[in-house]
Every structure is written in structure tokens, then in C-alpha cells.
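Journal club side-thread
Mid-discussion, someone asked how the predicted structure for our own chain would compare to the paper's figures. Pasting it here so we can look after the session.
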Amino acid sequence: MPVTGSEAKKHLKNITKKYFAGATVDFTKQSSKVRAKAPFVRLTLGSPARDSYPTQRMVDDRLVSYYQTRLPVQIDLFTNGADGEAGDNGFVETEDTSVDDLTDFVDYLESWYVTDWCHRIGAAIIVNGAVQPLTGLVTDTDYEYRAMVEIVFCYVHKAVGYTGIQGEASIQHPSETAPENPEKPGEPGQPGEPSVTPAPKGDGSEPGYVVPDDTEEGVTVKPVYEPTASGGGSQELVENTETGYFAKVNIEYKKEEGKQ
């Protein structure tokens, strides 16, 4: 499964929800949506930035541009904290645990578990700075405490084809079409079925998932037209401009008659 802008959003929510299983996790910039009784984790996406000059490679005689993309994300934790000790008056005051709780989440993001998960989907997570206490900025009465941390989600965006508008699904890998239960190789001295890489499934969070490699043998590019929701892209461009490429040119030199 390629990592695109929309897929990056799903991945971010998925890996955050795996940790904050007892909290509400959502994408929003509207503080009015902070109404759940459980702790609330808000993910706010910034503007993605990518390299001006991509790495380019010919895949099945088609040009593919690989853009290193960095997506900044602000993660806000809203919580009511934990019950503290009873005071002299008998009242139990709450303790602000927002910074500690979010620091534990940063430990999780920098763990080998998340690092391996990122490797499987072809991405990376960078924690950009320390956890910031923002309790004094909370204006919503449903929550008392708040902390924030910024991360950068890095992934590779692919522009496929001569026009760069073919969908990433145009790149088809042998591992994606492999049988679910490949035959076992034969005994020593006997012919067996060729080994086949299991087809990757799901959103990349499952154990054993490995992002397909465009350099593996047998990769093909079959133009796929994927119009955008805003009416962008053109099926005519895909059909009329993807006529193939040449990788070698034979140059033959001939001496013109009548010239010294």
C-alpha cells in the first residue's frame, strides 16, 4: 500500500489510537469538538513540504519521480488528570498529568515498535521538540489540563508516468499478486515451486508487512487513471501520452559525399 497524503492521515490516527486506546483520537482544528468525557487527543496537520528535485527512476520503462515529503503534525492531549491526595479540608484535588502522559506517548513514538512499523510502511516519525505544557490556554470547561508536542511524519510520494498524474496503483509488484498460501519447495534433489513473497495486506500495521520494492524483479507499470475529488487529472492525458520510452539509442555516423 503506497503512502499518500490521505494514507498518511490514516497511518497517523492508527498508530496514535494503538497507544491511546482509552481516549478519543480525531483530526480537528475546532475546539468546540472537544466534548468527549474520555481524554481527547487532537491531531492537527500542517502543510506538507517536499524536495524540489525528486529522485527519478525508470520502472518498467516508465518514469517515476520519488518526492521525500515531510508532514508536520501537532498533537494536543486534553485530560482531567488524576486524583491527588486529600487536603486538610477533605477535598481531593486533581493532578495535572498532561505533560507526563504525553511524554510517555513520545517514548512510544521513539520505541523500536514504532520504528519497525515505520520501516514496514516506508515512512519515518521525527519528534520535533519537547512536550509543551499548555494548561493555561485551555478554554473548554470539559477539560482541565492540556499538553502539546510536534512531530514530523516523513514519507515518499510517487509521481508516475510522463505526465506524473498516474495513480501510484499503476506500479504493480509481484508480491501484491502472489498467492496467499504458496506451495512449499520440494525435498532436496526434487524440483519445487518458486518461492513467492506473501502479498502485503492491510494498512501496514500488521506484523510481517513489508512495503513493496520498485526495484524487485517483475515490477510492471500499468497506467491507472485516478481523478481527484476536485476534478483534476485527465483520462485523455493518461491514455494519449503514455506511449512508452526508450532506454538506448543507436547512433550511426555517415560521411557526407562531396565534403572534405
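Post-session note: The longest helix spans residues 5-19.
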